[in-house]
Amino acid sequence: MRTLVFGGSFDPPHAGHAALLAAAARALDPDSIVIVPAWRNPLKRRAPAGPADRLAMAKAGLLDALPPRWRARAWIHTAELSSGRPIYTVDTLARLSADAPKAELHFVVGHDAAAEFGRWKDPRRLRRLARWWTARRPGAGGRIPSFFSMLRSPMPAASSSEIRARLAVGDDVSDCLPAAVRRHIERRGLYGLGRLRTLRGLLGARRYEHSRHVARLAGRLARRWGLDEDQALSAGILHDCGRSVPATRMGRCARARKLKLSRREQTARLAPLLLHAYLSEDVCRRRFGVSDPAVLSAVRKHTLGDSRMSRLDRLLYVADSCSLDRSYPEASKLRALAFADLDQAYEACLANKLRGCLKDGSWIHPLSLSAWNSLRE
């Protein structure tokens, strides 16, 4: 008896997953197919969608998408999802083997997971428990171990992390998600879609589009510099949510919310728009339920800077300063610099902003001067 096991986070399941499963089924002609959604990949910090949503999406995008011939032999193994904790693949395979001692297990995984096989728990035992299959994904990196059997069917260039990043900024993903999965995501507001709906209602069209541009650049910079992409996307899309308050009311609102800001009253009198980053942090907490201190810090510091700036703080400052919708002459050069040296780009963006204030004769907030002086020190 030959059993095909397909495991993964499926967060969300996409066209690449469906193509990989179908290719493995054609190559192996298994007697049964077991789809195993993980509660959470032990190599990752979080699962963006909850277990119930990923079970529904796995059914819609994988099980129901199989041709009738294979669908009749397939089922979803829910033990990992219902466990409430990360379970290692070696334990799941051992359990499947014990339940069906005569079964010949064949495990298929995507390109990225195969390339990370050396990091899995007990790889030697994993190799004894099953035969391993994968397929190359266009554009994917990483070396696949030689013991993997390769499926030769062409695979779509789709990855769950890239799809989540596109969803988070409201980009179209119809080219890589099964329609049933896309409908579920939209209905449930997953992967930031619910947040986008709320944000669109708060901001004007131009400010909303600016937020999308900043989030796109922040996500790309996070991938470039090895920072948390979800944090960067969240900070980017929400960084201006405080602009829902008119500039004429920002001082009054900051006072009512008791926002802590150096020279708050002076800022409200001389340059009230500078309060918007602190109002944005407040709206992030109250309206969007953000509790991540790293995201809140980046939102708070994206306009004035600070003498202490984390890598995420600097990244958002840069992304806001030179996002693709910025049209001033230096913007494109600053974007290029951000991918070459993030710290230099932060310094250049801060210097550019200070020069603009001096040219216009504007008041410079002491926090911005402190940020500059900390670089010189």
Sum this structure up briefly.
This protein is α/β, with parallel strands linked by helices and 377 residues long.
Describe what you observe in this structure.
The chain has 377 residues and is an alpha/beta fold. The protein folds into 2 domains: 2-158, HUPs (Rossmann fold), CATH 3.40.50.620; 204-376, Hypothetical protein af1432 (Orthogonal Bundle), CATH 1.10.3210.10. Helices cover 55% and strands 7% of the residues. It has 20 helices and 6 strands. The protein has a 6-stranded parallel β-sheet, with helices on both faces. α5 (89-99) packs parallel to α7 and α15 (276-286) packs antiparallel against α16 (293-301).
For this entry, give a set of tags:
alpha/beta; 6-stranded parallel β-sheet; elongated; Hypothetical protein af1432; 55% helix
Q: What structural category arises from helix and sheet content? A: alpha/beta
The CATH class assignment of the largest domain is Mainly Alpha
Strand content: 5-15%
Strand count, sense and barrel status of the largest sheet are:
6 strands, parallel
Task: Write down the CATH topology of the largest domain.
Answer: Hypothetical protein af1432
Write the layout of secondary structure elements.
Layout: E1 2-8, H1 15-28, E2 32-37, H2 51-63, H3 68-71, E3 74-76, H4 79-83, H5 89-99, E4 104-108, H6 111-115, H7 123-129, E5 131-134, E6 149-150, H8 160-168, H9 179-188, H10 193-202, H11 205-225, H12 229-238, H13 247-256, H14 264-270, H15 276-286, H16 293-301, H17 311-321, H18 331-340, H19 342-360, H20 366-376
Parallel strand pairs: 1-2, 1-4, 2-3, 4-5, 5-6
Helix pairs in contact: 2-9, 5-7, 11-12, 11-17, 12-16, 12-17, 13-14, 15-16, 16-17, 17-18, 17-19, 18-19, 19-20
